[in-house]
């Protein structure tokens, strides 16, 4: 793997060198490349290579289409290499080129917004040991090129600086990137006895704080110089409360204030809670008449929905009040309910998993950021049901057996809660296997379960092989009982070989029933076996004896005759 990592590093370096001297772009690059070995060359399958640009991965990917499905493709006839780490070996030596890398580069330029020439890309690949086999398919020693990622063309960038021109508190530098919208800082500098009016740009023209700035140039600096008039007054140049969207973190309140007359006396910060509908003072600052610019911050660590009021006083009582936007802080996990109502014991009725979730602030009924999803996954991680605040799933028969289900609730700031529930589902009846036969009487009546030797010999189990769903486990046999039925009279035959009750569920429990029908039971109509499993599934089987059949025919043949 080390030599592949070296290829990736070299590729980035070579392309960087190529594009340093490119006339139409400042910087293009090709990132990671992917490759695969050829493997053993066998068979007559036909491989067609298509190089395709994928906007989602921002890369040129190799799509291989075969005439016949192959096992390494998951028994399909197509595979796309979507990452450099995909090293699925291709067992071919002479592939056909479908869509060429030239077409893929053209698509990348038009769809992805690149400015890469085909020649430059091919030269960079050649320098890294890749080459065209002559049919449009690119390879290296022992394998094929499968993946080429790219980085967009770097736009023009320059720096904006601010000159207070005798004042103080100029904003920090900003960076203007070509093609991106930029607004100048809203912060204004201050100067004793003066009022700031606007910024005079070194490129010509005047700009106001917060105004959109559209000028582009290739590097360098544009200086904004403050223009002053003598009409200043005490002010609050900045007051903010963030974030103004739902967040799982803390909030930040900040301000910058200044009074150039009598000087600052105090700043008081108050907080309004939308949860409790109340105000409280959270912080205060004392300045003792300073005329310099002052800033302060407050970290909000409580959960809630808040906005803030800033009250600024100078030494002679002049007051300025500022109000912030709301901030939204969610520190609580969602709560899942309903999972505990799922049937957890063995059942032959498809269990239903029905859950709901809430996202309240801790200890309140006030909704926080809200739920983004509520999903139920099976024990392979597959999502079987999803919703926002509630969802349910009725088990399909393929989930016969014991399965553990994962329930995950996620709110809009990424907090998650998880619960699990285990189901025991058995919808297949136990099996009874025996040596009886089917017999047709002279009068045309069919007799099923005919024990011609007057022996009841049956094997009873609840193995998973009896279910078309092939469950991982079954509930197992709970009880086996043999009845003798004579007319309307039904009698349990008690013996160790005719009756059993299992106390615990065991998928591999079984019972071998053996009973010899005696001559004094000739009047019996039939014998009935009833088997129950722990999920409530019931299997019955009726058997007819040799004695009974002979009595119907009024013959004297007994067992010794055919033995």
Question: How would you describe what is shown here?
Answer:
- It is a single chain.
- This protein is mostly beta strands and 563 residues long.
- The protein folds into 5 domains: 2-151, no CATH class; 157-229; 235-329, Immunoglobulin-like (Sandwich), CATH 2.60.40.10; 335-425, Sandwich (Immunoglobulin-like); 431-562, Sandwich (Immunoglobulin-like).
- It is built from 5 helices and 42 strands.
- The strands form 9 sheets. Strands 1, 2, 3, 4, 5, 6, 7 and 8 form an 8-stranded mixed beta sheet that branches. Strands 34, 35, 37, 38, 39, 41 and 42 form a 7-stranded mixed beta sheet that branches. Strands 17, 19, 20, 22, 23 and 24 form a 6-stranded mixed beta sheet that branches.
- The longest helix is centred in the N-terminal third of the chain and has 19 residues, at 2-20.
- The radius of gyration is 41 Å and the shape is elongated.
């Amino acid at each position: 793997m080390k030599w592949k990592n070296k290829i990736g590093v070299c590729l980035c370096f070579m392309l960087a060198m190529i594009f340093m001297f490119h006339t139409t772009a400042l910087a293009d690059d090709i990132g990671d490349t992917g490759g695969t070995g050829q493997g053993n060359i066998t068979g007559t399958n036909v491989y067609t290579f298509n190089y395709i640009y994928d906007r989602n991965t921002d890369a040129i990917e190799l799509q291989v289409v075969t005439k016949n499905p192959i096992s390494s493709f998951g028994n399909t006839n197509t595979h796309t290499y979507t990452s450099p780490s995909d090293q699925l070996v291709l067992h071919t030596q002479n592939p056909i080129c479908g869509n060429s890398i030239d077409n893929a580069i053209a698509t990348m330029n038009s769809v992805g917004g690149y400015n890469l020439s085909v020649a430059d890309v091919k030269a960079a690949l050649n320098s890294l040991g890749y080459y065209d086999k002559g049919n449009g398919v690119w390879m290296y020693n022992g394998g094929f090129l499968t993946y080429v990622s790219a980085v967009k063309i770097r736009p023009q960038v320059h720096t904006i600086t601010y000159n207070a021109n005798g004042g103080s508190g100029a904003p920090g530098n900003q960076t203007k990137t070509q093609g991106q919208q930029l607004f100048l800082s809203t912060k204004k500098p201050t100067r004793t006895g003066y009022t700031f009016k606007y910024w005079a740009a070194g490129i010509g023209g005047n700009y106001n704080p917060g105004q959109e700035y559209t000028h582009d140039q290739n590097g360098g600096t544009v200086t904004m110089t403050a223009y002053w008039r003598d009409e200043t007054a005490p002010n609050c140049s900045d007051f903010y409360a963030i974030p103004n969207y739902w967040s799982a973190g803390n909030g930040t309140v900040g301000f910058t204030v200044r009074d150039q007359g009598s000087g600052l006396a105090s700043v008081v910060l108050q907080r309004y809670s939308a949860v409790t509908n109340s105000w409280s003072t959270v912080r205060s600052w004392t300045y003792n008449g300073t005329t310099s610019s002052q800033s302060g911050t407050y970290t909000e660590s409580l959960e809630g929905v808040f906005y803030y009021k800033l009250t600024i006083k100078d030494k002679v009582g002049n007051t300025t009040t500022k109000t912030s936007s709301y901030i939204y802080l969610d520190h609580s996990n969602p709560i899942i309910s309903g999972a505990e109502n799922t049937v957890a014991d063995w059942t032959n009725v498809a269990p239903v998993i029905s859950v709901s979730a809430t996202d309240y602030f801790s200890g309140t009924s006030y909704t926080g950021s809200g739920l983004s999803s509520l999903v139920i996954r099976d024990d392979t991680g597959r999502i079987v049901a999803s919703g926002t605040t509630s969802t349910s799933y009725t088990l399909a028969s393929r989930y016969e057996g014991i399965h553990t289900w994962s329930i995950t609730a996620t709110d809009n700031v990424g907090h998650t809660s998880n619960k699990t529930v285990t189901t025991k589902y058995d919808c297949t009846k136990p099996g009874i296997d025996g040596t009886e036969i089917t017999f047709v009487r002279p009068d045309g009546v069919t007799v099923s379960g005919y024990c011609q030797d007057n022996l009841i010999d049956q094997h009873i189990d609840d193995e998973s092989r009896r279910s078309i769903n092939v469950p991982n486990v079954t509930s197992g046999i709970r009880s086996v009982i043999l009845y003798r039925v004579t007319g309307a009279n039904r009698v349990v035959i008690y013996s160790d070989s005719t009756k059993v009750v299992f106390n615990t569920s065991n998928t591999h429990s079984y019972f071998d029933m053996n009973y010899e029908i005696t001559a004094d039971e000739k009047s019996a109509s039939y014998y009935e076996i009833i088997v129950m499993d722990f999920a409530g599934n019931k299997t019955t089987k009726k058997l007819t004896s040799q004695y009974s059949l002979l009595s119907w025919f009024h013959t004297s043949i007994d067992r010794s005759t055919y033995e």
